[in-house]
Structure to design on (320 residues):
């Protein structure tokens, strides 16, 4: 692909599909796999500015990336502008391409203290955060938002404009309010409105599950890119614009094995396999396995055991 789909300030982004930041999922192994299949940027799992400043022991793993993943976006959350700036400057030392501010997390512990989606209730603070961050950093600063806090406070247009006016270089929007959490339907009209309202790139997000959904969201909203979260778990081929049904069992096996190998290499044999189980459960979910078969697969303690069992169970399924 020679022509960038869009630019984040001067950074070209080659491709219009992006793996969403997902705590517990968008780690290096999954990002690298999805990048290889077509995801155009790498958003890390969000990191707490306080953890950055205090040097949380687990942070290193979250911040590690491969050169092939560029552009790499570190996503941070907090409710305090000065702490966000301090943390962002520390993160800058790790040479990410972009710093993204999370304004979408609906978790009570995050949003409840005014961070994540909690920031949507304090637009003036968002202005301050973006002004300060963009003045302090030499790399682009972007934001990921929701529609607002609840139906009475759907201020996404105001927030998107504030981001742009204060130097933000891209806005990603999940078409739900904080109150909706992950329920109900994502509102793509709002994504289209944001795209019309700002001239920085807009990434649409919410309820994209199939290749047809990707094209529908693009046509409906005119967004520059599409972010995919839940539907990418167990289905990384979506970044190659292939629906899960179109992927053969042999390809599922090969990609799953690649994913598992990446996890073992990154986390070590024991932890890697344990962490892989949440992906494995989604890789195998389209197969009609019995509860016992699923249980067996998800409790394997070595990679060979897992692969041998997968082959046996899937092959048996085919011969039925
Ligand atoms: C398990 C999980 C973890 C998530 N973690 C983050 C996160 O760290 N940062 C963020 O901006 N959004 C996070 N999200 C929200 C997603 O990025 C995305 O906005 C949301 O799931 C809607 O997209 P989808 O309909 O494609 O799932 C998370 C979502 C899930 C399901």
């Amino acid at each position: 692909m020679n022509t960038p789909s869009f630019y984040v300030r001067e950074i070209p982004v080659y491709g219009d599909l992006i793996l969403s930041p997902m705590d517990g999922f968008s780690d290096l192994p999954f990002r690298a796999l999805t990048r290889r299949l077509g995801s155009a940027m790498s958003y890390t799992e969000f990191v707490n500015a306080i953890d950055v400043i205090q040097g949380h022991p687990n942070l290193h793993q979250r911040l590690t990336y491969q050169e092939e993943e560029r552009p790499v976006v570190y996503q941070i959350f907090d409710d305090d502008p000065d702490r966000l700036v301090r943390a962002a400057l520390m993160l800058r030392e790790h040479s990410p391409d972009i710093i993204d501010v999370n304004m979408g997390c609906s978790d009570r512990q995050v949003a409840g203290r005014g961070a994540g989606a909690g920031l949507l209730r304090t637009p003036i603070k968002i202005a301050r955060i973006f002004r300060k961050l963009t003045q302090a950093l030499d790399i682009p600063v972007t934001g990921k938002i929701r529609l607002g806090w609840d139906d009475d406070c759907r201020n996404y247009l105001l927030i998107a404009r504030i981001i742009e006016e204060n130097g933000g270089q891209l806005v990603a929007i999940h078409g739900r309010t904080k109150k909706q959490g992950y329920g109900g339907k994502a509102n793509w009209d709002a994504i289209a409105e944001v795209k019309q309202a700002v001239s920085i790139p807009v990434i649409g997000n919410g309820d994209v599950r199939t290749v047809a959904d990707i094209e529908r969201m693009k046509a409906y909203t005119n967004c520059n890119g599409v972010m995919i979260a839940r539907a990418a778990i167990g289905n990384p081929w979506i970044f190659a614009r292939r629906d899960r049904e179109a992927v053969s069992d042999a390809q599922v096996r090969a990609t799953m094995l690649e994913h598992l190998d990446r996890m073992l290499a990154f986390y070590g044999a024991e932890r890697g396999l344990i962490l892989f189980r949440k992906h494995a459960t989604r890789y195998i979910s389209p197969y009609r396995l019995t509860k016992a078969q699923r249980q067996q697969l998800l409790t394997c303690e070595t990679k060979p055991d897992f692969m041998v069992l997968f082959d046996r169970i899937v092959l048996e399924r085919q011969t039925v």
Remarks:
- The pocket of flavin mononucleotide is lined by residues 20-25, 45-46, 75, 102, 104-105, 144, 174, 205-208, 228-231 (CB under 6 Å).
- The chain has a mean pLDDT of 96.
- The chain has 13 helices and eleven strands.
